[in-house]
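Saturday, quiet lab. Running sequence design on the structure tokens for the scaffold JK sent over.
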């Protein structure tokens, strides 16, 4: 007797594919049934903005379905493809304001590569979570020949380092995807640099790279698991010298890469680059250096002792968790002033406003504190509680949206989106958490050095955010101690300057590695006093004084 199993009795499911047309790029791709629109965008070579990594939380990946089983505005990360579709991606403007200049320190040109009399070039890269900047320098004179920059295309996998690390851990090919994405971006920037300068890739003999610890690991294809699990330490800490070919970077065959060291899980080579740019361990007076991005990295000390830490500032100041937040691109409200009793907004490229970037967020919150719209606990006032004459005249801005209090900045009819632009109570809480963590970090670092905060003589603000924000307003909201208001100096893209120093003088690279070893790292989470100080710093002290 034979027992026969007939597969056809139970029909096998065949995976279907559908044609998705993305406009206005007019790109067509085939996507498997059940794929999200966000995943299809990535497969099509687009670079969608997904600050939360596709978790459906940030609402920034909205697209418009023009043709399909249903039409209208949807979140690309939540809508699954079940038929042929046409989708308008409403492509966001590329980041207009990418900071490329910084504090300069002169050193001898001695890159440690190239033969005497040979004309060649070197490149310095600053791989930021949000942006990537590349500098092409003459290997013989050290002269900066060309600069190129772009948004970090890894943003399609999450706005911050935690989102990207989690993406890698949750997807089998996540590490390979993010590694290839950033390496492709560097090759594109190298192409732009050599085209601008009229030179050849093969004339580039050396590249230096700075980046935070997570960017370092993702570039190398190293699992970021150790960064998201206690005790949050780098898988690789020391500096590395590598063959460019082994990192898929197309330059001279013998070209090499100098990868900056990491200090801790959230204090990486970019912080080391900042320290190198000012020769931090040679400073006479007590100095605080702050680099605020998706995280806040802090260094405090002088030639006697240096301590460093990182704070969970979160992406609030880059717009990711702010309801009307955005990066510093066209249409972003970047500053606020009061003229003749009216609110005046500075908007990037003088366009109709479409959102709020970090520098604008600080100005707006300082204004709300200054005029009594926000109390010391961060609560939005009610109209009957307003006393300040200007506040009374602007009381109409206190409204409700979805049953929750908001402060309206731009009415719907005056915005570039047709929707009102506002600050919500939730937005204020996000800023409180960010500024509270940074302020607590500063207090604890000063305590470790045995000094009162008032003894800090210089405050260096590194990075784009520090360069564009109004430092007086940063002190007004308590992000930086008010007592230090007159001692603040923006130093631009100091991380990039450090990368340039290291690539044109190999002794500077060696010096950078020693700086990383000298700095004492403070893990704030393990500090007994951190929680109490953090809670205290959540308050807006200046609101009480007024």
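Result came back. Writing it out in full:
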């Amino acid at each position: 007797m034979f027992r026969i199993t007939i597969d056809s009795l139970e029909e096998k499911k065949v995976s279907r594919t559908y044609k998705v047309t993305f406009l206005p790029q007019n790109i067509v791709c085939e996507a498997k049934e059940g794929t999200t629109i966000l995943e299809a965008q990535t497969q099509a070579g687009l670079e969608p903005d997904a600050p939360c990594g596709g978790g459906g939380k940030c609402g920034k990946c909205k697209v418009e379905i023009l043709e399909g089983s249903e039409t209208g505005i949807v979140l690309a990360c939540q809508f699954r493809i079940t038929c042929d579709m046409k989708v308008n991606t409403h492509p966001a403007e590329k980041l207009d304001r990418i900071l490329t200049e910084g504090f300069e320190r002169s050193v001898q040109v001695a890159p440690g590569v190239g033969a005497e009399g040979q004309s060649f070039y070197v490149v310095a890269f600053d791989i930021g979570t949000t942006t990537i900047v590349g500098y092409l320098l003459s290997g013989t004179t050290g002269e900066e020949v060309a600069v190129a920059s772009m948004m970090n295309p890894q943003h399609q996998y999450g706005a911050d380092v935690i989102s990207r690390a989690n993406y890698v851990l949750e997807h089998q090919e996540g590490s390979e995807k993010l590694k290839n994405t950033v390496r492709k971006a560097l090759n594109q920037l190298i192409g732009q640099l050599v085209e601008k300068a009229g030179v050849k890739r093969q004339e580039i003999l050396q590249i230096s790279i700075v980046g935070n610890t997570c960017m370092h690991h993702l570039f190398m294809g190293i699992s970021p698991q150790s960064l998201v699990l206690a005790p949050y330490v780098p898988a690789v800490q020391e500096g590395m010298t590598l063959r460019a070919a082994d990192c898929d970077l197309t330059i001279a065959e013998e070209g090499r890469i100098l990868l900056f060291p990491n200090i801790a899980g959230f204090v990486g080579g970019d912080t080391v680059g900042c320290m190198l740019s000012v020769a931090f361990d040679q400073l006479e007076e007590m100095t605080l250096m702050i680099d605020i991005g998706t995280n806040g990295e802090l260094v405090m000390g002088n030639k006697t002792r240096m301590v460093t830490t990182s704070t969970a500032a979160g992406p609030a100041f880059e717009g990711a968790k702010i309801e009307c937040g955005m990066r510093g691109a066209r249409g972003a409200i970047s500053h606020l002033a009061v003229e003749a009793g009216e609110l005046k907004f500075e908007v990037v490229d003088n366009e109709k406003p479409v959102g709020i970037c970090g520098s604008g967020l600080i100005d707006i919150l300082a204004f709300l504190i200054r005029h009594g719209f926000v109390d010391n606990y961060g609560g939005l006032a009610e109209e009957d509680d307003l006393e300040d004459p200007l506040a009374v005249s602007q009381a109409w801005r206190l409204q409700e949206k979805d049953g929750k209090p908001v402060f309206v900045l731009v009415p719907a009819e005056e915005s570039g989106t047709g929707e009102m632009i506002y600050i919500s109570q939730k937005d204020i809480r996000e800023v409180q958490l960010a500024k509270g963590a940074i302020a607590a970090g500063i207090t604890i670092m000063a305590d470790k050095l045995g000094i009162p905060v008032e003894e800090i003589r210089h405050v260096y603000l590194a990075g784009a955010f520090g360069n564009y924000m109004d430092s007086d307003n940063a002190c007004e909201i308590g992000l930086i101690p008010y007592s230090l208001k007159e001692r603040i100096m923006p130093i631009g893209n100091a991380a990039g300057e450090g990368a340039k120093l290291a690539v044109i003088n190999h002794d500077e690279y060696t010096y950078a590695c020693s700086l990383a070893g000298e700095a004492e790292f403070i893990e704030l989470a393990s500090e007994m006093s951190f929680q109490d100080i953090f809670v205290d710093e959540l308050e807006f002290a200046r609101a009480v004084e007024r």
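Notes for JK: The longest helix spans residues 174-197. The two ends are 96 Å apart (CA to CA). Ask whether to fix the surface positions before the next round.
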